[in-house]
């Protein structure tokens, strides 16, 4: 099928499955691997689009479910799409809306036609079909759009349902491809399903890769499965995916998950956690998460993170030199506290992925991984998570070796 | 010894003439503040909704009003954190741009009424951990540590019903004594503004005479809790050369103009923040709408032009117009009404950020036009025209504001209504961002029309 992107491989890690690439989308190039902040309702937690741009972000996520509700397809149509709505001239990715519908509307269930739910307002049965989701995303005008898939939690014991969901997702992909009106302007990504069953995942990869979408997502994860199971699924899928296409693992954002997933061959990630957690006074740093509402920070006049290059932490020209003590002073009392932490947290995530990328290009990613885990766990190897140690061993990196 | 003035009056040539004044406030190391002008009001050291980088990049704010009560809640260590910072603690701690002038007052403006009265040595202030006494001694030492560019001396104020004669005598006695203590101990050399009490001038005549005769050379400005006192200030050269700061909470631009006509120079304007929180974009220009704006603001059918636009109104949902035509603020040059409307209706914090940027810009432009008008000698006629063209009051608020932050509001007693309505309760989530607005408000027909989903034929 046609595509509206260009994937250029820049470097491959000589040890792990990590890759560095340039992905050129309709609104400009982005560097892979990449973290995408989530601007759910066309805004990122109080940051102006200009401030978001200053963090280096060139691809953010909007949620189709939310934009479908507010402002709605008709308004989006009149405005000319989500880029126009939010004054964002860089790239946008949208999800299908199905996942949120199933998880937020209690009476939703999935049939072959689509996601059925009762209108919470008047109880009328309603339906979101693959055609519908694509039509909404066509109107939104996002640079990357996602197929509607049949998602069930990976931990579901119902294997029959799992197989049905995977096969249905393939059939819905065909309907999405057929419904997609702008294949030369918007890139449709398929979503690999199949739960934790590697056999199902492999079949799904084969079926979906054959459809030739411009990019491929690995879906249904980050739903509470064991991390080791997660890693097995990601690694199984990436081994079966074409090398010259971007691979997106949905809903992943903890720093450890990101670096391990890159080592397993994934390129793109999104998660609400870094921005949501800022609201609760949490700062992400390379030594772990700090809750700046804690009294111990009331008199801490150091930056949120020493050496951080974000607008908040930086001193001098263009930097604010904000201290932990000041964030403590306003956290949960003034929204500016959340805005400042959001700027820092988004910057942290993007900077992390930039340094991952640099290390891949310079072919020192294994050393990067060792330093990353040492920083996070104060050099104490007994604290390293087993799943990460195991997963990295499968791609030739032994965190335990001196 | 007389201190060098920080204020220069450019017009009128004789400053004792009652009328609009053009001036310039100069504080070393900060940008000059041309007057008439305003100081942004801060809360806990931040201008609500605006991060310091946004203030630097997207506002013309020249000064900020800060309240000591925002920094001194009881802490385990005893010393408030901000007091431990060397140099210029207010700027360093709050990260506001160095070009911006800081004015320190004991209390916020507007301040929450304290249940306890003041004593001979202390007033009652409201911190995030509750009411506490602030002695003049401690206020003076805070000023010496915080080194604000300007501080307002402690005043013995009552809130609520007008005080009786006995009380007003006490008010002016205490205020005089507190000011005198501050001036005699004012080692750091920062400018001090003397409060003018919100009681009739006769009741504080002794205090006013004290200012005129004994302290005019020591103080750098007058802070009015009631602007009606302006004409009653002794017309001595030494007093009239001082800048006049209004803490009178003007309710609308008309009040600002009236105060300017009486000789007010610098304002604090709570209605900017109130408008922002209410989802109202201020749109007034001085003295009349810009040519482009006339049509846009006149769509209410009334011949009187509104002072602002209620951005909650759904008709803005598809409007690609800026909040105010030919407005050059970040919000208006980068975004349109449809986005602001969407953000408000989706309860996204950015909605209030963008309104706050715009509303502060509108006030900066308002004052800039006022200065031009005074310079041209047309202020009286212009103010009269403004009064004729514009509505007398700001639009009513129709939508919900941002979440009310509890410590801003003192509970008036048991049974008081909750300030924030509970978000969607049935989703079992304590995370607002997950539970908020996610269940459609619309019925199925509306959902179908919006393109959200389709009805199923049974
Ligand atoms: Zn930072
Ligand atoms: Zn504007």
Concise overview:
The complex is a heterodimer of chains A (402) and B (458). Chain A has 402 residues and is α/β, with parallel strands linked by helices.
- What would you say the CATH architecture of the largest domain in chain A is? Alpha-Beta Barrel
For the termini of chain B, the CA-CA separation is 91 Å
* CATH H-level superfamily of the largest domain in chain A: Queuine tRNA-ribosyltransferase-like
Oligomer: heterodimer
CATH superfamily descriptor of the largest domain in chain B: Queuine tRNA-ribosyltransferase-like
Strand content of chain A: 15-25%
Number of alpha- plus pi-helical segments of chain A: 15
Helix content of chain B: 25-40%
Number of strands of chain A: 16
What this model shows, in words?
Chain B: Its cofactor is Zn(2+). Chain B: Residues 20-391 form the tRNA-guanine(15) transglycosylase-like domain. Chain B: Keywords: Cytoplasm, Metal-binding, tRNA processing, Zinc. Chain B: Belongs to the queuine tRNA-ribosyltransferase family. QTRT2 subfamily. Chain B: Residues 394-458 are annotated as: Disordered. Chain A: Zn(2+) binds at residues 308, 310, 313, 344. The complex is a heterodimer of chains A (402) and B (458). Chain A is of the alpha/beta class and 402 residues long. Chain A folds into 2 domains: 6-270, TIM Barrel (Alpha-Beta Barrel); 278-363, no CATH class. Helix content of chain A is 40%, strand content 17%. In chain A, the strands form 4 sheets. Chain A has an 8-stranded parallel beta sheet. Chain A has a 3-stranded antiparallel beta sheet with strand order 1-2-3. In chain A, 57% of the residues are buried. The model of chain A has no long low-confidence stretch (mean pLDDT 95). With 458 residues, chain B is of the alpha/beta class. Chain B has 2 domains: 6-269, Queuine tRNA-ribosyltransferase-like (TIM Barrel, Alpha-Beta Barrel), CATH 3.20.20; 276-389, no CATH class. Helices cover 32% and strands 14% of the residues of chain B. Chain B is built from 15 helices and 16 strands. Chain B has an 8-stranded parallel barrel. In chain B, strands 1-2-3 form a 3-stranded antiparallel beta sheet. In chain B, strands 7-8 form a two-stranded antiparallel sheet. The longest helix of chain B has 28 residues, at 349-376. In chain B, 49% of the residues are buried. Chains A and B meet through helix 1, helix 2, helix 3, strand 9 and helix 6 of A and helix 1, helix 2, helix 11, helix 12 and helix 15 of B. The complex binds zinc ion (2 copies). The site of one zinc ion (ZN) has 8 residues of chain B, from helix 10 and helix 12.
């Amino acid at each position: 099928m046609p595509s509206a992107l260009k994937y250029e491989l820049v470097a491959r890690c000589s040890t792990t499955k990590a890759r560095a690439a340039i992905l050129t989308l309709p609104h400009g190039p982005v560097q892979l691997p990449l973290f995408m902040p989530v601007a759910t309702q066309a805004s990122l937690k109080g940051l102006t689009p200009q401030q978001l741009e200053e963090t280096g972000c060139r691809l953010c996520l909007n949620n189709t479910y939310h934009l479908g509700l507010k402002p709605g397809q008709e308004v989006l149509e009149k405005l000319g799409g989500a880029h126009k709505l939010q004054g964002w001239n860089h790239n946008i990715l949208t999800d299908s809306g199905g996942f949120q519908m199933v998880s937020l509307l209690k009476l939703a269930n999935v049939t072959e036609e689509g996601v059925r739910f009762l209108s919470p307002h008047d109880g009328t049965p309603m339906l979101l079909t693959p055609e519908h989701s694509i039509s909404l995303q066509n109107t939104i005008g996002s640079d990357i759009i996602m197929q509607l898939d049949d998602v069930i939690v990976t931990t579901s014991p119902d294997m029959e349902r799992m197989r049905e969901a995977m096969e249905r997702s393939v059939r819905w992909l065909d309907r999405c491809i057929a419904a997609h009106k702008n294949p030369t302007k918007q890139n449709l990504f398929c979503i690999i399903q199949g739960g934790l069953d590697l056999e199902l995942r492999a079949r799904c990869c084969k079926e979906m890769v054959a459809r030739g979408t411009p990019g491929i997502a690995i879906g249904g994860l980050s739903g509470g499965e064991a991390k080791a199971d997660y890693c097995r699924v990601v690694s199984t899928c990436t081994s079966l995916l074409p090398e010259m296409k971007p691979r997106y693992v949905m809903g992943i954002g903890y720093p450890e998950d990101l670096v391990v997933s890159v080592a397993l061959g994934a390129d793109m990630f999104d998660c609400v956690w870094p921005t949501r957690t800022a609201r609760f006074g949490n700062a992400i740093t390379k030594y772990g998460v700090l809750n700046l509402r804690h009294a111990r920070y009331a008199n801490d006049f150091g930056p949120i993170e020493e050496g951080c290059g974000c607008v908040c932490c930086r001193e001098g020209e263009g930097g604010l030199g904000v201290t932990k003590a000041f964030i403590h002073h306003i956290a949960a009392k003034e929204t500016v506290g959340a805005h400042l932490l959001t700027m820092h947290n988004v910057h942290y995530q993007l900077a992390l992925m930039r340094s991952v990328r640099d290390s891949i290009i310079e072919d020192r990613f294994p050393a990067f991984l060792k330093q990353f885990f040492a920083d996070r766990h104060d050099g104490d190897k007994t604290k390293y998570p087993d799943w990460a140690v195991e997963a990295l061993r499968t791609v030739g990196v032994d965190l335990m070796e001196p | 010894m007389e201190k060098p003035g920080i204020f220069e009056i450019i017009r009128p040539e004789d400053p004792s003439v009652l009328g609009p004044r053009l001036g310039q406030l100069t504080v070393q190391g900060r940008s000059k503040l041309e007057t008439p002008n305003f100081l942004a009001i801060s809360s806990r050291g931040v201008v609500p909704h605006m991060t310091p980088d946004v203030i630097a990049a997207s506002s013309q704010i020249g000064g900020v009003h800060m309240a000591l009560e925002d920094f001194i809640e009881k802490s385990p260590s005893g010393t408030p954190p901000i007091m431990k910072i060397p140099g210029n603690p207010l700027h360093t701690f709050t990260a506001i741009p160095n070009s911006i002038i800081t004015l320190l007052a004991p209390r916020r403006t507007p301040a929450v009424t304290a249940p306890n009265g003041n004593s001979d040595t202390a007033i009652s202030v409201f911190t995030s951990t509750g009411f506490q006494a602030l002695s003049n001694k401690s206020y003076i030492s805070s000023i010496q540590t915080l080194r604000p560019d300007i501080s307002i001396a402690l005043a013995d104020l009552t809130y609520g019903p007008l005080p009786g004669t006995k009380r007003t005598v006490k008010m002016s006695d205490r205020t005089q004594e507190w000011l005198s203590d501050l001036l005699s101990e004012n080692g750091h050399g920062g400018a001090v503004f003397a409060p003018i009490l919100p009681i009739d001038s006769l009741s504080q005549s002794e205090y006013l005479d004290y200012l005129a005769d004994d302290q005019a050379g020591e103080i750098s400005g007058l802070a009015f809790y009631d602007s009606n006192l302006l004409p009653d200030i002794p017309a001595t050269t030494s007093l009239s050369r001082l800048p006049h700061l209004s803490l009178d909470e003007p309710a609308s631009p008309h009040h600002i103009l009236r105060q300017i006509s009486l000789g007010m120079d610098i304002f604090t304007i709570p209605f900017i923040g109130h408008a922002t929180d209410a989802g109202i974009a201020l749109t007034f220009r001085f003295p009349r709408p810009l040519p482009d704006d006339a049509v846009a603001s006149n769509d209410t059918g009334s011949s009187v032009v509104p002072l602002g636009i209620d951005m909650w109104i759904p008709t803005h949902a598809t409007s690609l117009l800026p909040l105010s035509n030919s407005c050059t603020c970040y919000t208006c040059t980068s975004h349109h009404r449809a986005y602001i409307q969407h953000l408000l209706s989706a309860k996204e914090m950015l909605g209030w950020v963008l309104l706050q940027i715009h509303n502060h810009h509108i006030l900066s432009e308002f004052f800039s036009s006022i200065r031009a008008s005074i310079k041209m000698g047309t202020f009286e006629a212009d103010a009269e025209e403004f009064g004729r063209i514009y509505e007398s009051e700001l639009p009513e608020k129709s939508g919900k504001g941002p979440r009310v932050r509890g410590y801003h509001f003192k509970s008036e007693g048991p049974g008081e209504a909750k300030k924030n309505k509970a978000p969607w309760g049935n989703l079992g989530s304590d995370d607002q961002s997950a539970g908020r607005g996610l269940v459609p408000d619309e019925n199925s027909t509306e959902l179908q029309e919006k393109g959200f989903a389709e009805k199923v034929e049974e």
